[in-house]
Amino acid sequence: MNFAQFKLDPRLMAAVERAGYTAPTPVQEAAIPPALAGHDMIGTAQTGTGKTAAFVLPILHKLLSGPRNRTRALIIAPTRELAEQTHETFRDFAAGTNIRSATVYGGVGAAPQIRALQNGTEIIVACPGRLLDLIGQRYAQLGGIEVLVLDEADRMFDMGFLPDIRRIISYVPKQRQTMLFSATFPTEVEQLATQILNRPQRIAVGLICPAHTVSHALYPVTSTLKTKLLLAILEQTDTESVLIFTRTKQRAKRLAEQIERSGFKVTSLHGNRSQGQRQSALNGFKGGEFQIMVATDIAARGLDVESISHVINYDIPDTADAYIHRIGRTGRAERSGDAFTLVCPEDNAMVRELEKIMGQALSRQTIPGFKYDTPSATKTAISNIKARRAPSSPGTKPSSRRFFPSQGTTAPKSKPTEIYTARGWRSFSHAI
User: What is the pLDDT averaged over residues 398-410?
Assistant: First the structure.
């Protein structure tokens, strides 16, 4: 299939060609026809599959006919970063159409956003909090909304935004087209979909599984050695574009400082940074100014940087869904990527859940020359996390960049070793 079969407006087709799009992705092929036909929709798609364009193109096609200079489409997103990414997609595809879009979110001055609303921008991409503020101040008028999109609905539920979403929807006309996208469907999201959508069509592409272009590995370690092991991994890899996830804002800041002291060009992205600082960090990482970005889960969704070669989970995520979204930042657009996770003994339950979701054991790796042999490290990290090497999943392409450059493109061989623990002798494998 090709984009010409969608019969999009010629101005949009020109933008599609400028963007280098050839054949639509599976989610675009499934979602664009019903969206163009005006149907309500529930969409579930793997991250990095082109979901944003799947609703952006139909919205622009619709807005090319009908009134101008008033707000006709509203997209609600959970984070500023996702709002900006969506806005950029609208701007790219709308070039030459005179359709205007604007972002509305907190952390920055409201004056430019108010001016955009007063000037009659046709598309608003908003985060719930600031949008409700501007509705309350009567700057945002939603009475002319024809298309409503709720993007990453499960993430908005996780962040406690569902009451805000319901309030916003109360200001939007009942006669509208509504599209809801969510990676998972907890009960509350299902209830919301039932209440706000009218006979929706459902599309589902790549459910609950990571991209096949990503290679996975676990690095067992104790919590006291995590930072040292991370630095050892970074020393042995091509660090042109590495995204590291931590669980907390304070840890992201502290870890970025430690990595910088080791000589790497690094930035951080977390909720304690101002919007200007966050945008500067993101731009610097995208542009290659920084080799490494340390981030909280604020960057797990909506961060579209095709060149990210490695994702490293300094802290294992709390859910399998969060893992899939984190590692979805690499292996995008059919490129290969690596996802590595530092795991401590207390992470065993989450490791088992990940392996259950992925249908295979995850490879355990060690770093040659790294000193694991402190008493606590040897006993708890290596023996309590059973070492095993998993076969590659079907269709997985081996990464061209492994963390052992002196030994080519494959991981080193391993040999069995035994150590004594409180539970007796245990075997583990280590690299040789």
Answer: 35
Please, which residues have CB within 8 angstroms of residue 168's CB and are 6 or more apart in sequence? 74, 76, 128, 131, 132, 135, 142
Does residue 377 surpass a pLDDT of 70?
no
Query: Residue 216 in 3-state DSSP?
Result: strand
Domains of the chain: 3-205 (3.40.50.300), 214-370+390-406 (3.40.50.300)
Question: Does the model's pTM come out above 0.70?
Answer: no
**pLDDT value at position 302?**
56
Phi-psi region of 55 (alpha: psi -120 to 50; beta: other; left: phi over 0): alpha
Burial class (CB within 10 angstroms; exposed 0-12, middle 13-18, buried 19+) of 91: middle
- For the chain, the 3-state helix, strand and coil shares in percent, each to the nearest 5, are 40, 20, 40
DSSP 24: P
H-helix or E-strand spanning residue 309: none
**Structure token pair of residue 384:** 């309590």
Q: What 3 state SS string does 327-392 have?
A: HCCCCHHHCCEEEEEEECHHHHHHHHHHHHHHCCCCCECCCCCCCCCCHHHHHHHHHCCCCCCCCC
Give CA–CA dist 210/216, Å, rounded: 10
